[in-house]
Amino acid sequence: MKTDIIINRDALYALRELPSESVNCCVTSPPYYGLRDYGLDAQIGREDTPEHYIGRLVEVFRELRRVLKDDGTFWLNIADTYCGTGNKGSYTDPKNPKGRNGQAVSIARTAAGCKQKDLIGIPWLLAFALRSDGWYLRSDIIWLKENPMPESCRDRPSRCYEHIFLLTKSKKYYYDAAAIAEPIAPGTAARYRQGRGAGHKYAEEVPGQGKVQGINKTRSGGYYDDALMPTTRNKRDVWLINTVPYKGGHFAAYPPKLAETCILAGCPKGGIVIDPFFGSGTTGLAAKNLDRHYIGIELNTEYCALAGARIGGGNT
Question: What's the fold here for domain 5-180+234-315?
Answer without folding.
Answer: Rossmann fold (3.40.50)
